[in-house]
């Protein structure tokens, strides 16, 4: 097993760097990579020491200004004191210079959820071509191979992730085909002009007929482009799991209850209209929306439900694992905080789960604070307190589709408040907006909004759930 205390510092830092790098490529397991990176970093540069160095560096400019003023005033004693403080800060920072950059990612920037580059269609937010995706896939394989040699403590995980990336197929993107078709049409137009200039009207008639055929095909393709399936829409098997009595007892102690969601397979016929890069063009998305709304069964056509279906299907959403967030339509077993929704700003009893997460109150948390708490403590809570495999399960803010499914029976969505939902809406330029909802004024259980991850309000509540990672998988092997 990798022993950070006895290893050479550069080897530990190299391992931390590799873990950080692969976490950007294998985003669904990012929490496990960063947890390991944090463990290794704590032996090299503790969070407390890093915080002190950062605080010292922040005031260094002010201290140097005061030192200069003391010298100009001839206050040698004060100048000496400032010199000692400046010297100590610089010396401490220099001694840990190799670690500080990595520590910043591990301790300060871990809540920045990256978009999974391999979730079908989401490469567009990273400006990644087919060739780039292939290069990233090979890079992930190289890193995982090195980690398997360097860090035996997580060798099994590295081996399984290697197998997944080896099985990952990168196919050519449709943009290349579109460019070829455009080039062909341009050549035909040039041929038509040449035929006209030469007076060859029979050739011109033939070329014009071919161009008209291509225009008709293009029109049909433009209409159908919005519903071209970019992912496998097979709903798969129900996500059933038999929790042990020991786990269930520990869950109750934490304030979590076992639930099985309802199957919503009857909505499966709509999944062919799920988000894809073509929807970034307004006309394609508008066309798909009209088709989608015409397909929704009238029995399920309440305005707020229609709005929720439209938001889920027609917009680029990701979960906290960075992969494409699609509503899970199969029955699934999970653990969830199922307490009744309180009146706004009414403090609830503090549970052991909040204590384990280091959270003082459910109200007014930013998504950044929630992600930091879940990344730092989630895997440990699963393994040590619930006896669950963190590679199979994940502790998250309750997903919107689970909130919607369970909410009606539990009376959720009847208060003037919002609940944090797991996941993000990928906006223009790849900027992420956190998901939340449930305010009775705007649709109750079907209300979904988005806002900056740094946003906070006293009417925003945190509710957590333990879900199976399988619900978050896109290109991954689910076996």
Query: Mean of the pLDDT scores?
Result: 86
* Series of H and E elements: HHHHHHHHHHEHHEEHHEHEEEEE
Which percent range describes the beta-strand content?
A: 5-15%
What's the total helix number?
Answer: 15
Query: Overall 3D geometry?
Result: globular
**Rg, alpha carbons:** 27 Å
Structural class assignment: alpha+beta
**Termini separation:** 27 Å
* Total beta-strand segments: 9
**Tally of distinct domains:** 3
The helix content is: 40-55%
- Low confidence ranges: 1-9, 174-183, 219-232
Summarize the structure.
With about 475 residues, the protein is α+β, with helices and mostly antiparallel strands. The chain has helices at about 10-25, 30-45, 45-75, 75-95, 95-110, 130-150, 155-165, 175-200, 200-225, 245-255, 280-295, 305-315, 350-355, 365-385, 400-410, and strands at about 255-260, 315-320, 335, 395, 420-425, 430-435, 450, 460, 465-470.
């Amino acid at each position: 097993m990798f022993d950070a205390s006895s290893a050479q510092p550069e080897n530990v830092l190299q391992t931390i760097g590799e873990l950080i790098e692969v976490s950007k490529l294998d985003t669904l397991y990012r929490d496990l990579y960063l947890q390991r990176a944090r463990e290794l970093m704590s032996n090299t540069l503790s969070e407390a020491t890093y915080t002190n160095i950062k605080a010292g560096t922040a005031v260094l400019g002010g201290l140097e200004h005061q030192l200069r003023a003391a010298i100009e005033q001839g206050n040698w004693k004060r100048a000496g004191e400032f010199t000692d403080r400046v010297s100590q800060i610089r010396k401490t920072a220099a001694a840990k210079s190799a670690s500080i950059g990595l520590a910043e990612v591990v301790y300060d920037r871990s809540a920045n959820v990256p978009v999974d580059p391999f979730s079908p269609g989401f490469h567009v937010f990273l400006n990644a071509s087919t060739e780039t995706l292939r290069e990233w896939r090979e890079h992930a394989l190289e890193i995982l191979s090195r980690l398997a040699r360097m860090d035996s403590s997580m060798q099994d995980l590295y081996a399984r992730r290697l197998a997944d990336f080896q099985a990952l197929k990168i196919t050519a993107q449709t943009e290349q085909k579109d460019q070829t078709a455009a080039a062909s049409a341009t050549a035909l137009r040039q041929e038509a002009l040449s035929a006209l200039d030469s007076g060859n009207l029979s050739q011109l008639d033939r070329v014009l007929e071919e161009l008209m055929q291509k225009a008709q095909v293009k029109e049909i393709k433009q209409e159908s482009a919005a519903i071209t399936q970019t992912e496998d829409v097979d709903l798969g098997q129900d996500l059933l799991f038999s929790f042990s009595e020991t786990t269930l007892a520990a869950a109750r102690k934490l304030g979590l209850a076992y639930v099985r969601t309802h199957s919503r397979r009857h909505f499966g016929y709509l999944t062919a209209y799920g988000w894809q890069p073509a929807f970034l063009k307004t006309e394609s998305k508008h066309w798909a929306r009209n088709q989608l709304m015409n397909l929704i069964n009238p029995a399920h056509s309440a305005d707020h439900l229609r709005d929720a279906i439209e938001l889920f299907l027609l917009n680029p959403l990701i979960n906290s694992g960075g992969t494409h967030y699609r509503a899970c339509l199969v029955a699934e077993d999970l653990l969830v905080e199922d307490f009744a929704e309180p009146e706004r700003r009414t403090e609830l009893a503090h549970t052991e789960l909040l204590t384990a997460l280091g959270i003082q109150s459910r109200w007014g948390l930013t998504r950044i604070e929630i992600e930091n708490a879940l990344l730092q403590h989630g895997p440990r809570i699963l393994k040590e307190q619930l006896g669950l495999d963190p590679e199979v399960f994940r502790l998250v803010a309750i997903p919107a589709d689970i909130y919607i499914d369970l909410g009606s029976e539990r009376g959720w969505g009847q208060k003037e408040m919002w609940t944090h939902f797991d996941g993000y809406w990928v906006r223009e330029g790849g900027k992420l907006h956190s998901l939340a909802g449930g305010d009775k004024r705007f649709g109750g259980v079907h209300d979904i909004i988005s806002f900056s991850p740094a946003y906070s309000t006293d009417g925003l509540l945190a509710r957590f759930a333990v879900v199976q990672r399988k619900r978050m998988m896109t290109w991954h092997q689910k076996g």
